[in-house]
């Protein structure tokens, strides 16, 4: 497999397959890089916990839970802390991707370690910063590039259409239809890497935005095989 040329800001030692790219020709220049995290709890490969950002950067958008890595913390420690602070829960987080995010005119680029977990403990709670809600993973976000995962998902639902609700440990959502992931109220790059996260393929990517949150340029790649 030929070695891929990664955009500035990204490094990865293993094999990668490019999954999407587009936008203008040049990447936005940046001077500094700050470390961030973002964490997703995904139950039965079918529903995901997102938070509605009530204040600060990305207000009005739905996202995973995360924030800055504090001095002396590892990204994993920061991700665990942020998930507890913003959603009130603990989860066995697994590193599943890296997003390099640049906003034209901002003082620093964001290096975001993305984490996922299949389970959690505690009670999902609204906080000052985030209003958490469960969403159903719509078919469009299931990876076409990984037929195994798509087939498994379809098979589960065909065999037992109630499987998601019966197996989910979240009593308040039991039996209720969940809304689809609200892509139109999320960062525009998310639709490119979420399918990779749902298929458990480690991904790296970069997305550049202008000062009005319009996506200017993007590039994503993923490991050829699933994490587990
Ligand atoms: N899904 C997604 N998340 C993004 C993108 N860009 C981006 O910064 N994020 C995430 C990374 C962080 O989880 C979050 C920004 O952090 P934040 O606004 O909560 O951090 P903060 O400065 O308030 O820091 P803190 O007080 O929470 O530590 O947004 C993106 O394009 N897609």
Automatic annotation (TrEMBL):
E.C. no: 3.6.1.56
Subcellular location: Cytoplasm; Nucleus
An annotated Gene Ontology molecular function: RNA binding
Keywords in alphabetical order: Cytoplasm, Hydrolase, Magnesium, Metal-binding, Nucleus, RNA-binding
Function: Oxidized purine nucleoside triphosphate hydrolase which is a prominent sanitizer of the oxidized nucleotide pool. Catalyzes the hydrolysis of 2-oxo-dATP (2-hydroxy-dATP) into 2-oxo-dAMP. Also has a significant hydrolase activity toward 2-oxo-ATP, 8-oxo-dGTP and 8-oxo-dATP. Through the hydrolysis of oxidized purine nucleoside triphosphates, prevents their incorporation into DNA and the subsequent transversions A:T to C:G and G:C to T:A. Also catalyzes the hydrolysis of methylated purine nucleoside triphosphate preventing their integration into DNA.
Subunit structure and binding partners: Monomer.
This protein's name: Oxidized purine nucleoside triphosphate hydrolase
Organism: Lentinus tigrinus ALCF2SS1-6
